[in-house]
Structure formats: C-alpha cells, structure tokens
Amino acid sequence: MAAQTILFDFTLDAGKTATAIQRQEVARIVRNELEHVFSQLELAYSMESMDNGYFSVLHENKETIITCRIFQQGLLTINVEYYLADGKEPIMSFDTGRRLENAIATKLNALSGQKIPTLKRGDVARYYPSADERIIEYDIDTLVYEARSPFQKIQIMHSKTLGNMLILDELQNIAESDLIYTETLMGRGIENYEGKEICILGGGDGALLYELLKENPKHVVMLEIDELVMQACNKYLNTICGDVLEKRKTDQYEIIVGDCVDYMKKFIAEGRKFDYVFGDLTDIPISDAPIGECWDFIRTIFEHSFQLLKPDGKYLTHGNGTSCLESLQLFEDQLRLLKPKVKFTTTKAFVPSFMEEWLFYQVTFA
Amino acid sequence: MAAQTILFDFTLDAGKTATAIQRQEVARIVRNELEHVFSQLELAYSMESMDNGYFSVLHENKETIITCRIFQQGLLTINVEYYLADGKEPIMSFDTGRRLENAIATKLNALSGQKIPTLKRGDVARYYPSADERIIEYDIDTLVYEARSPFQKIQIMHSKTLGNMLILDELQNIAESDLIYTETLMGRGIENYEGKEICILGGGDGALLYELLKENPKHVVMLEIDELVMQACNKYLNTICGDVLEKRKTDQYEIIVGDCVDYMKKFIAEGRKFDYVFGDLTDIPISDAPIGECWDFIRTIFEHSFQLLKPDGKYLTHGNGTSCLESLQLFEDQLRLLKPKVKFTTTKAFVPSFMEEWLFYQVTFA
Questions:
Q1: What is the Cα–Cα distance from A247 to A253, expressed in whole angstroms?
Q2: Would you call A94 and B133 a contact, using CB atoms and an 8 Å cutoff?
Q3: Cα distance between residue B266 and residue B362, in whole Å
Q4: For residues A145 and A211, is the Cβ–Cβ distance under 8 A?
Q5: Distance between CA atoms of A159 and A144, rounded to whole angstroms?
Q6: pLDDT tens-digit profile of A233-243?
Q7: Do B1 and A170 touch (CB under 8 A)?
Q8: Residue B249 DSSP code
Q9: What average pLDDT does chain A have?
Q10: Which domain of life does the UniProt lineage start with (chains A, B) (predicted)?
Q11: How would residue A261 be classed by pLDDT, with cut points 50, 70 and 90?
Q12: DSSP code at position B295
C-alpha cells in the first residue's frame, strides 16, 4: 500500500508572477501542460491572496490530485499525488515526469526547474535525515518493529544493504553494517581496555558494551534510560550486540535502567571513578527541553563525566557529521568551557548507515 | 528563495477509514492536532468521493497551506507547504514536526507514521535519483550552469563535497570527485592502451578521453551528439577533462559531433577497426522512444560496436548500480543475444557522486 507523491518546482522571473493576472496566466499554462498527461483534469478549487500568491487544486477522477502554488516571488510548485495499488504501474513514470518538467519549464521560460524523484508513502518508512538535514532514502523493505516508549519512538527497519537499523524518533542510530562506528568510538587497536573500569552513558543498542567486553575490561557499567530500546535491540540487532542485553548483571558488567544524570550524581557522591566514560547518548536529549537547551544538557553530561574520571581517564564520544561545521564548533566550545580544563583529539570514519563521515572525540584532562 | 514542503504519512487500520464518516472523524482529529502548531488554521476546501477517500485544504493566513488526504485503504498523507524567506527560521522545525507526527500517530492509534525530512524547493535543485530510483539530496550550494540543448537538459551544479557535477535530464552523470568512475571504466593498470586505436561512444564530459590520452594510445575518436554538453564541461569540469574539449581534432584524437550510430555505420562501411570501443553513453537513449525500447537501442550499440572491434578487441562500458539486479540481468541478456557470441567480466567501484556501487563490463569475442 503506497501513495506516490511527485513534486515539481520551477524558478520563474519574479516579474512574471508579481500580479494576480500574471499568476492566472502561469496557472493556465501549467494546467494546459498537465492536461497532456491527465486528459480528464478538472479544477476543484483555487485561492488567490494579495501577498501570498495563487493556489489551486486540480484532479483527475478525484484519484490523482494535483496542487499548484504560485508564489509572487517567482516560485512555482506542483504536487501530484495518487494511490498506487500493489503491482500496478505508476501513473507518472520517471520519463513522463521528466517530459512534463521540460514542457512546463520551456513554456514558462523558467530560469530553472526540477522534478524531485518520486516519494513513496505509506508502505514502509524509508526517509530519514542525515546529520546536515539532507533527506536519505534507505533501501528499506520491511518494518521489523515499531513502538513508542515513554521516551521515544523506536523503529527497527530492515535495509537490503545495511541490515537491520535502529531508528529513534526519526533519527538513524546504528545498523548491522556499522561495526566501524563502534570501533571508531572506542578506538579499537589504540586504547587498551584490559583490566579497566568503564562507564557507558546511553548505549542502549548494546553494540559498545558487546565490543568492549571482548577486550577484557575489569568492569563495565551502562546507564540506559529506555528499557524498550534494549528489548528491541536484543531481539533484532544480535549481530552487533550479541547476547549482552540478555542479562542486566554479570561479574563483568551491569546495565542500570534509569536517567544517566541521576546515576552519575550517585556515583560522584560515592566517590566512584572510571578509566573510561563513554558518551553514547542520542544527539538530542530525551526531554521536552527546547532544542537550544541541548548544549546545556551536553555540558552537564561533560561536567559529570569528568568528575567520574580518574586523573588519566578518558571521555570518548561521537561528535557529528563532518559536514556539520557549526554544530561541531558549538560542541568544541562546550569542551573549552569545562573546568578543570580538558584537551581533545579527534578521529573520523564513514559510517555506512549514516551515509556520511562522522567525527569522534577523545577528551582528557589538560 | 525557497519553499519548504513537509510531508507526513500514517498507516491506519483500514477499518478506521473505510466510510466517509470515519474519514471525517480522522480529519477532525488531524485538524485538532494541526491547530496546536498553527493556531490560525482555517478550512478552505474539502472533497469526499466514494472510492477515493477524503481530501481537504487547510491554511494559516493563506501562507502555510496544508493538504490532508485520507485514502480508504487506511493511508493518511499530510503535506505542509510555506514560503521561507532568506534568513528566516523555518515555521516547522525538525523537533516540532516530530512532535506533531507523534501526536497524530498517538491520537489515531496509527500502525506506523513518518515525517519525511523537509524538502527545500526553488533555491537550487538538489534532489536526484540513484540508479534504483531512491531520492538523493546532494549538498548543492550553487547552480553553476543550466541550459536545454536540442537533446537534453544540461545542468552543472556545485556540491560542497563532490565539486562540480554534470546532470543530464535529471540524472547525475559525473562529478569532479569521480576519477574512480573513469579509472574503473577503462581498467587503469589492467588494460594497456599504448599504441592502440580507440573509439568512444558518447563521453561528452571529456573525462574518459582525458584519462586515455595519458596512456599514449595511437588514436582516439570520440562520437558525441551534444555540442552543448562539451561546451559546459570544457568550462566547468576541467578537473576531470583537462583541456581535451578545447580542440575537436589533434594528431592524437578527433571529436566528432553527431549521432554515434550514424558514424559507427560509416566506420563499418569503411572497414575501420578498433582495439577498444567504449560505451560511455547516458543510460537512456536520447530519443522520444518509449523506455521499453531502451534495450533495443543498447543492443544496436552492442552490435555495431562488435563490428568495429578487431578480433582481440574489447568493448568496455558501465552497467548499472549493483543494487539494480533486474536491470543488470536485462543488460546481460542483451549481451547473450549477440552473434558472434561474446563473453564478459565485471568490475565494480563505489562512485562518490552516485552514492552507490556501480558495475562495469569488459566484453570480448567468445
């Protein structure tokens, strides 16, 4: 079951869409070209407003519905939407769409035009953003699991090339393809975890815990807020988390389900210290705080983490996509605000399921 | 200048959208949730049809226009569109959109829901399809060049990470980042071009010619139909084509502007033979032929190419994305139809600007 949404947009000389009469003329030309593809086209509704331009709804048999919007600034958008039953051919093929785009652009003498590749809606969710908010369409064929915990929306989707993927609140977190993510985060081959005491903040997918345990640490404690994430990963992401989420406590590790800040405070009060603290939380704090307070949250995590570290301890965490220069800068600004002072190095890796290169931080006392 | 289009879709139990009354109730709930974000929301238009469900247009000050469509099969799509002036904050942030998605899904008890990452329309074209028709959003910051030749729409776009990209009729062809494409196509380090006679079919971006000339062939003839493509690449893709498109004829090479099939026929009639023929044409023939005839065109190219090859000659070409199994199978079927019989090997490379792995073919007489 899926709807197809096909979006076109055209940049016109603003002189051609400044008045209502001009916009009517553009709309007439568009309708004429659409009729070459949709012969039964009818106008259902139109609206004109002084400041905001022209908007109309056209349809063919009420099946294909087309909205056309002309902005006075010289922008024309056309949205075509229809229901595509399983096994049926699309009403508008890539080639038909391309011809229509070309015909409209030519007739309107457009400065530029584009047909956005057809969006498929309603069968499986497949569109997620990259770190720099570009749309990524994954080759997802199955929704494996979907639930809403008290903290977030949890999805496990199956990608043909990346395996099962964990998606939290519409953001891709980790996939079966992403051992490189965990190995870069932990600095495999660089750091020596043997006999060390380790604290993981977050890490609910279990991948970091699983990989760390292979390196014979003395003990690992993991602070994860969302029980449901762990249940989902334990069931569907065994490739990357093995069986570590099966138990909550062994001689080697303990998983505590709760707010990591509360437990960090408890550890600090107890005077507990670690060789390594891992920041493996989702990018955005799980709370109702406005996005701007995100940096306060991150700094709180930093401050508490460094109180938990031995003098030669290390704080290891992911940063962001390497293309997100502004966000990385803000992240480093937070590090520079810390007292006592810290210093850091970075590593990077192309993470398959992120479809981009990410930066990782290794932070120590200066 | 840009419009923002934000698409939501929800899969509902089909039992909840089967009748007009049920759809009205879904629409009422959706409107109620939308009003939490858009407090001035008004209903402009609605349409109900027996078979195809419910469609409505809502708006806030005629600035933000929202269409809501409820398909009787249990699919709900919501499209939000508004004009975002330069430097203004988006009306709907990632977080607001995510909360709205969550609220609607919860209220409707949806089986699944998604907010598609915001689409930016009208500033620069940035959405192009992968070989398997997934949408790719490039980090394009400038439209460098756009023109429509008698054969196709030609765009040079600048990507922050990939450099200048050549896009023909909405399909990404080659970027400054893609030396690996040309090197894999020509089998650099495997094939020996010294003193050889070579024919390139297509290749208007000049990259293949440029790289081949570095290997001291006896002579290269290139058959390219579109003069305007070569002018654009000569001006904006020097990184990959050097200065080879500056001249049409030297002692080492000749560029003939025309239909390659016509010139292949001429060469066959003259008894001209080559050590290598390269199929470096765009995927889809430049003609008004329906897409189904594409394979006939490809076979025609094969047949003529092999008539131009010396007995130990090679035909080298790209295939398709490695995920396009069906298309690759059809391609190989065409090769198997050839007489005299041919055999082939393949190589593959991840092409940066394609954002996927591609397969390349090396074909010889069996």
A1: 9
A2: yes
A3: 24
A4: no
A5: 10
A6: 999 999 999 99
A7: no
A8: B
A9: 93
A10: Eukaryota
A11: very high
A12: H
Interface size A-B, in CB pairs within 8 Å, comes to 211
Q: Give the class (CATH, top level) of A2-120.
A: alpha beta
Among A152, A227, A290, which Cα is nearest to B105's? A152
The CATH number of domain B126-174 is 2.30.140.10 = yes
d(CA B35, CA A54): 23
Identical fold at A2-120 and A176-365?
Answer: no
Residues of A in contact with B10 (CB under 8 A): 122
Place of tokens 């990346």: A162
Q: What is the largest CA-CA distance in chain B?
A: 78
The domain ranges of chain A are 2-120, 129-174, 176-365
- Is residue B99 less than 8 Å (CB to CB) from chain A? no
Identify residue B316 by its one-letter amino acid code.
L
SS3 string, B55-115, reads EEEEEECCCEEEEEEEECCCEEEEEEEEEECCCCCCCCCHHHHHHHHHHHHHHHCCCEEEE
Element (H, E) at B255: strand B253-257
- Closest by Cα among A70, A48, A66 to A57: A66
Q: How far apart are CA A108 and CA A105, in angstroms?
A: 5
- What local confidence, expressed as pLDDT, does residue A124 receive? 84
B119-147 per-position pLDDT tens digit: 999 888 899 998 888 999 999 999 999 99
| Cα distances (angstroms) measured from residue A249 to each of A246, A257, A313, B170, B263 | 9, 11, 24, 55, 75
pLDDT in tens, B264-281: 999 999 999 999 999 999
In chain B, residues 101-140 whose CB comes closer than 8 Å to chain A: 101-102, 105-106, 111-119, 121-122, 124-130, 132-139
- Bond from prior residue into B352 cis (ω within 30 degrees of 0): no
**Is pLDDT of B288 > 50?**
no
Q: In CATH terms, is domain B176-365 a member of 3.40.50.150?
A: yes
DSSP for residue A138: -
The residues of A carrying an active-site annotation are: 280
Calpha distance B132→B129 (Å, rounded): 8
Residues in chain B with CB shorter than 8 Å from the CB of A124 are 112
**Rounded Cα–Cα distance for residues A202 and A230 (Å):** 10
* Catalytic-residue membership of B280: yes
Q: Which of A2, A10, A119 sits opposite B135 (nearest CB)?
A: A119
Give percent of chain A with pLDDT exceeding 70: 97
Mean pLDDT confidence for A161-181? 93
Type of residue numbered B215: E
Taking CA–CA distances from B134, the nearest residue in chain A reads: A137
Mean pLDDT for the stretch of residues A88-97: 88
Q: Which is it for strands B219-224 and B119-121: parallel, antiparallel or unpaired?
A: unpaired
- Amino acid of residue B126: R
Q: How far is B227 from chain A (nearest CA, A)?
A: 19
> Which pLDDT tens digit goes with each residue over A185-224?
999 999 999 999 999 999 999 999 999 999 999 999 999 9
Four-way CATH pick for A129-174: 2.30.180.10, 2.40.170.20, 2.30.140.10, 2.40.30.10: 2.30.140.10
